[in-house]
Amino acid sequence: MEFIWLPFLGSEFIWRVQGCARVKFTIPGPDSVDWFVFDAEDHDFFEEYEKYKEFVHVEKITYTDVECDTFIAVFYTGLGASLSLAGILFGKNWRTSNAAK
Fold it and tell me: Strands, DSSP E only, in the chain?
């Protein structure tokens, strides 16, 4: 299950965290709960989920590939700054070498 978490402080957006979560669920067998109601097309999934959610238990959640947009923004800002500086220095050196000719 992939997720994107958007935390807010009051009404202000702070940053975005995205990643992947592996969740292991346990549910009782079909002898105690009729799980086929989720297959019916005329039923709303979330309406049925509200009725049956106390039967679903999360055993384990493992988060992988979690990254924050702040890290990505800082990384690309540094990359952009270094490439810009390399371009400026290249232009300066090229102008200096052409002036000496």
Answer: 2-5, 8-9, 12-13, 17-26, 57-68
- The structure tokens listed for 79 are 């990359």
Report the alpha-carbon distance of residue 101 to residue 91 in Å, rounded. Answer: 16
For residue 99, what pLDDT is reported? Answer: 77
Tell the residue number behind the tokens 């965290």, with chain if given. 17
Angle at 97 between CA 96 and CA 101, to 5 degrees: 115
| pLDDT value for 84 | 92
pLDDT for 2 equals 67
Can you tell me the distance from the alpha carbon of 58 to that of 48, in angstroms, rounded to the nearest whole number? 18
Per-residue pLDDT at 86: 94
β-bridge pairing 12-13 and 8-9? antiparallel
Angstrom distance (rounded) from CA 49 to CA 35: 10
User: What is the C-alpha to C-alpha distance for residues 72 and 2, in angstroms, rounded to an integer?
Assistant: 18
Nearest residue to 48 (alpha-carbon basis) of 58, 38, 57, 56: 38
Element (H, E) at 9: strand 8-9
